[in-house]
Design goal:
By secondary structure, the chain is an all-alpha fold. The protein has twelve helices and no strands.
């Protein structure tokens, strides 16, 4: 009985050792393969990317882009996609979405009225797209110059529109040279292929020369009004008076060439003469005693 038991245990040990050796040999010759990450998850993302195209309306296009973008991030964060596969899918999505997004933007740029809310969404979406990075922390758009160029084209229109609006809203006068520069700039914006579609902006830019001329005239009015204060001496007043006179004459001589039409300066010159006569009486009709008192006090 004992002999039979020993034989059974010995046989069992030999079988265990043999099984272990066979398993080890199989492990070395045919090691287990990692579960493929390029499986159902990646295939699902690819199908979602295929559904992103130019034929969609803007809202649906953005919704599908966001769903695919969010899924890539979720699968990557949960290690269900390799970093390399995640990067590939991000590039695929960017290359499908950006041309469709840019086309939608260009269609809206063709409208006669631009909605501020639409422009704000465009700028925010471009900022978001430019901030998407791969596993090496490089912006996806920097690795795809053609994609980045399309986004920059839309961003350029948005920036030029903002600059044109700022120009149209200005109401100040600095100098004739500055006025000439601003009028040239307004005409340049009016010839822009995209901005020229915006009827309100074109009307505002059309008014730039007139507004500058009016601002120039108001500036001269303030200069003339300053002559109401004669100052401390006749000589100083005459110098100021002559300077204002030169500016009024320059405006009269150049208004048509700079602003497109003439604006009369008769009222300005009439006010200047009134201030001149008042200053003349102030300084030249004083008695010697008045002049002495002025010097003392």
């Amino acid at each position: 009985m004992k002999t039979s038991l020993k034989v059974f245990l010995l046989s069992l040990a030999i079988a265990a050792v043999a099984g272990s050796l066979l398993f080890f040999a199989k492990l070395r010759l045919d090691p287990p393969r990692a579960v493929s990450h390029d499986g159902e998850q990646a295939a699902l993302v690819r199908r979602m990317i295929d559904n992103v195209h130019q034929g969609l309306d803007s809202d649906t296009l953005d919704q599908r882009w966001f769903a695919a973008h969010h899924l890539i991030g979720f699968l990557t964060d949960n290690q269900l996609l390799r970093p390399g596969e995640s990067d590939t899918l991000k590039v695929m999505l960017m290359e499908k979405y950006v041309p469709a997004f840019v086309r939608k933007c260009e269609l809206k740029f063709g409208w006669s009225v631009w909605e501020d809310s639409d422009l704000k969404k465009m700028r925010q979406r471009i900022q978001l797209l430019k901030g998407i990075e791969n596993s090496d922390k490089h912006a996806i758009v920097d690795l795809r110059p053609s994609v980045n160029g399309q986004l920059d084209r839309v961003l350029g229109v948005l920036n030029r529109y903002r600059q044109a609006c700022d120009l149209a809203e200005r109401r100040d006068f600095k100098s004739i040279a500055d006025s000439k520069d601003r009028i040239r700039e307004a005409r340049r914006y009016q010839s822009d292929a995209y901005l020229s579609k915006n009827t309100h902006l074109m009307h505002e830019l059309d008014s730039v020369p007139t507004r500058l001329q009016e601002a120039h005239y108001r500036y001269l009015e303030r200069c003339v009004a300053s002559l109401a204060n004669p100052g401390t001496s006749w000589e100083a007043f005459q110098e100021r008076y002559d300077g204002v006179g030169r500016e009024v004459s320059l405006f009269a001589d150049s208004a048509r060439a700079v602003y497109g039409h003439y604006m009369a300066v008769g009222d300005l010159r009439s006010d200047m003469r009134s201030h001149y006569h008042a200053a003349d009486r102030e300084f030249n009709n004083k008695s010697a005693w008045d002049i002495l008192l002025d010097k003392i006090f």
